[in-house]
Structure formats: C-alpha cells, structure tokens
C-alpha cells in the first residue's frame, strides 16, 4: 500500500473495499479489514477517506421509501439483504470511527475530480506515508485523531440516528441490528472506558472470537501514557448515544405493547 500508485483508481478501490468487507465474518477478518483500510487512509487521506466516508454513509442509510411499492415477498427479500449487509458494515464503521479513520458524515464526498482530488472535501487530513509495518500503531493513531473525531455528533451517531429513526414504524430488522451492534460496542458507547482498559473490557460476542482477538495491540503496556486514561468516547457523545437509544427502545416498547393488547 505504501508504494502502490493508486491515485487514478481511488473510486474503484473504495467500491471494492466496501464490497469486500461485507464478507467479513470472524473477528480476525474484521481486524484485518480495519488494518487495510487504515493503511489506505494514511496513504490517501484526501481522496480515499472522503470517498469511503460517503460510500459507507450511503450503504448504512435507511431503506429506500420506494420499497413500499414492492409486493410482500420482494420487500422481505430486499429488507433481509439490507440487514445482512448493514450488520457487517456497522461493525466495520464502528471500528474505523473509534480509531479516527471515520469522523463525521459531513466529511464524505460523492466524487473525485479529474486529478483524483476529493471534490468538496470537509477537512479530512491524515499522514500520507506513515505506513510502518503495513499500518501504524493503533494507539498513536487513536491519540492523533481523538480531538477531531469527537467534534460534532460523529459518524456513528449520525448513522445510527438516521437508521433507527427513519420513520415511526418499528422495523424488527433494525431493532435486531441495533441490538447486535450494542452487544459488541456498548462498553465503549455508553460507559466510561479508556484506551488502557479497552482490550480487557471487550466482550466475546460470536463463536469466532478468541482471546487473541481481544489482545491485539495490547502486547506492550509501555505504549500507554497518561492521556490513555481519557475515555475513548467523550462524555457528551456518550450522552447522545444514551439518549438516542433510550428514546428508540421506548418507541419499540410502546409499539410492541400496542400490537399485543
């Protein structure tokens, strides 16, 4: 990645990356995908990252309203396909947001100009050639991007808000997606967990997870500094997530009670 000349093919690379990560099943696959994307982000921060942000945001968008014109079988197939795709993308996007590759939905751009530069990019910066050993230290990257990542609502909050609040009707598929995502990330999104604790705090959520998955990046405790005791997700953002999810599940509860009365 550090030496490849890919400027003319950034759009194709982003499309291939988004399609490829949907095949990730085991945790090891997810970590590998995050490393590859991190390396591309560091090499092409002004082209790859804005277009990736836009493409992921579109892929995680609420279902198209045109689905209502389909018959029941077609609509169920479309919804099932969307849920399966977005479940994996939510996990990947969450990891990328936590390490600072994704920041805000507004950073995304829909196209690149003839010179390969992002059109209308929203101030996405990075380290172009700092790819040591395929990807730089995740701890260093976390500290570099912490301040920018926590400005605004953040990519994951915007995506989750749009996904779960796209209409008044409660979609069981969306409830399941949110529950699965929270099961994997609630310890980061709603509790005061810092970088020093993240490796031991993460729960095992699927049969493919192993102890080694949780130990990635934690082999050298000397890499941690005093700043690593700061929460990964700021208090203001944790409050946003909590309020969003409380209101959402209250709506789910109200709808289910009405349906079973």
TrEMBL record:
PANTHER family: NONSENSE-MEDIATED MRNA DECAY PROTEIN 2 UP-FRAMESHIFT SUPPRESSOR 2, REGULATOR OF NONSENSE TRANSCRIPTS 2. Coiled coil: none annotated. One of its GO terms (biological process) is nuclear-transcribed mRNA catabolic process, nonsense-mediated decay. It comes from the Eukaryota. One of its GO terms (cellular component) is cytoplasm. This is 1836_t:CDS:1.
